[in-house]
Amino acid sequence: MSISKFVSDCFDEGMRVRRDVCRAVLITSLVWMMVDVVVLFHFIDSGVSTKTATKIRAERRSIDEIEYTADIETKARLEILLKGLSFSKDGPGEMGSPVHIDPSKEQERKEKFKLNQFNLMASDMISINRSLPDYRSSKCRESATRYKNFQLPLVSIIIVFHNEAWSTLLRTLHSVVNRSPLELIKEIILIDDLSDRPYLKKPLDLYIQRFPLAVHLVHLKQRSGLIRARLEGSKLSKGKVLLFLDAHVEVTQGWLEPLLYRVATDRKRVVAPIIDVISDETFEYITASDTTWGGFNWHLNFRWYPVPKREMERRNHDRSAPIQTPTIAGGLFAIDRQFFYDIGSYDEGMQVWGGENLEISFRVWTCGGSLEIHPCSRVGHVFRKQTPYTFPGGTAKVIHHNAARTAEVWMDEYKQFFYKMVPAARSVDVGDLTERKALRENLQCRSFRWYLENIYPEAPIPRGFRSIGQVIQPRNGVLLWFKCNFIATNFCLKMILCGCGTSISFYCFYLGKQSV
């Protein structure tokens, strides 16, 4: 019977059925018809849908299996790497003590030494969590109380490495985590400058996930060198302060707060720690003097010199007070992020490594900032006798290129001293200097003479001179291979011992008459 016929019967033929019952039957019938339609369409589409869903699930399962297998392999490699290291604090090298290799393993020690130009066997024997004494003076420990009630800025720690040893890199990271207030560290940014050692790839990616703070690792696609790699890290940073570290250091107790405090109280301060020595032979931690500062010689090589009397007096002979230094070593320092960019970050025209520390030192001082070494902050650094890395075109060419860029942009007429001492630098292509010279002009930076007179009057470069040259002394018609550099100032011909900038004698001429 059709629905219309049923309705007609209900009402026209006078069936003795209540009207509400008829209505209920009608509604129920309509609902079941709709259910039938939905079920029908579901089965029509089920063939295609089921096949598609099965295909997607199969592909997803395949990808998961590949990722899972790769993860297992990485984990296995990482575990093997970690088994060769110690994490407990009861082995050799604790409290900064030296490690000596058994003479029977001397040949192995020599071979491994070549990989990084330090005693890799000794490093691998020392705990990644090696203990160190608190090297701070009592006055430094007392002054640390000021940091508790001061809101220190967050810092981004940037570490660049290229084929760094596994144990030294991990010890660097662990020392930072173990001896720093983690609430002050926004992040640690690791920049892998195209390393080709497998342990610095996926195993390191996996290992850094263990740290209780944000650690980012970037693998550069081409060899960039320290300067450009640091710039890559700086671009990624989110902290108010940038803190650059090398990849083979150990920080000590209370190292971070003094640096952040000095930058926070003057955003134009650039502050470095005292850089202690970690022996490349024994990994002994050797404290450096707190009365040395950074200078340079005529070759534009960075050098450590005793802090002069005038600076000691400025500090009121307070050994815990920051030292105003003419230059910094460059490997380790803290700087306000915005100030870093305001004054031109790094010179991107420089190559690989070397000379960037003097360039930024001259720039900071002459463009309105200041440089300090804080004696209450100590960081140990593995100092190597030679670099294990190769430089495109040779080490000398790269160093001369970078130094010449510094001299051309920042040293004014005093660049002559550098070129007289390093004639080979004249023939090096320094590249385009337009942007860097424009930067100096736009920042209205002071002259290099101002720097010598006010910041580094102890520099081995006289402020007044007429000419620069060399004197060669002949004897009995034979030319001796003994040369001295001379500077003709207004009154004297000053003889300088080559290489170290130490005066050995004076020949003075007054109004054309010789006086000795």
TrEMBL record:
<dbReference type="GO" id="GO:0004653">
    <property type="term" value="F:polypeptide N-acetylgalactosaminyltransferase activity"/>
</dbReference>
<dbReference type="GO" id="GO:0030246">
    <property type="term" value="F:carbohydrate binding"/>
</dbReference>
<keyword id="KW-0735">Signal-anchor</keyword>
<keyword id="KW-0325">Glycoprotein</keyword>
<keyword id="KW-1133">Transmembrane helix</keyword>
<dbReference type="GO" id="GO:0006493">
    <property type="term" value="P:protein O-linked glycosylation"/>
</dbReference>
<keyword id="KW-0808">Transferase</keyword>
<keyword id="KW-1015">Disulfide bond</keyword>
<dbReference type="Pfam" id="PF00535">
    <property type="entry name" value="Glycos_transf_2"/>
</dbReference>
<comment type="similarity">
    <text>Belongs to the glycosyltransferase 2 family. GalNAc-T subfamily.</text>
</comment>
<keyword id="KW-0479">Metal-binding</keyword>
<dbReference type="GO" id="GO:0000139">
    <property type="term" value="C:Golgi membrane"/>
</dbReference>
<feature type="domain" description="Glycosyltransferase 2-like">
    <location>
        <begin position="156"/>
        <end position="338"/>
    </location>
</feature>
<keyword id="KW-0472">Membrane</keyword>
<feature type="transmembrane region" description="Helical">
    <location>
        <begin position="21"/>
        <end position="44"/>
    </location>
</feature>
<dbReference type="InterPro" id="IPR045885">
    <property type="entry name" value="GalNAc-T"/>
</dbReference>
<keyword id="KW-0328">Glycosyltransferase</keyword>
<protein>
    <submittedName>
        <fullName>Glycosyltransferase 2-like domain-containing protein</fullName>
    </submittedName>
</protein>
<dbReference type="InterPro" id="IPR001173">
    <property type="entry name" value="Glyco_trans_2-like"/>
</dbReference>
<keyword id="KW-0333">Golgi apparatus</keyword>
<comment type="pathway">
    <text>Protein modification; protein glycosylation.</text>
</comment>
<keyword id="KW-0812">Transmembrane</keyword>
<dbReference type="GO" id="GO:0046872">
    <property type="term" value="F:metal ion binding"/>
</dbReference>
<keyword id="KW-0430">Lectin</keyword>
<keyword id="KW-0464">Manganese</keyword>
<dbReference type="InterPro" id="IPR029044">
    <property type="entry name" value="Nucleotide-diphossugar_trans"/>
</dbReference>
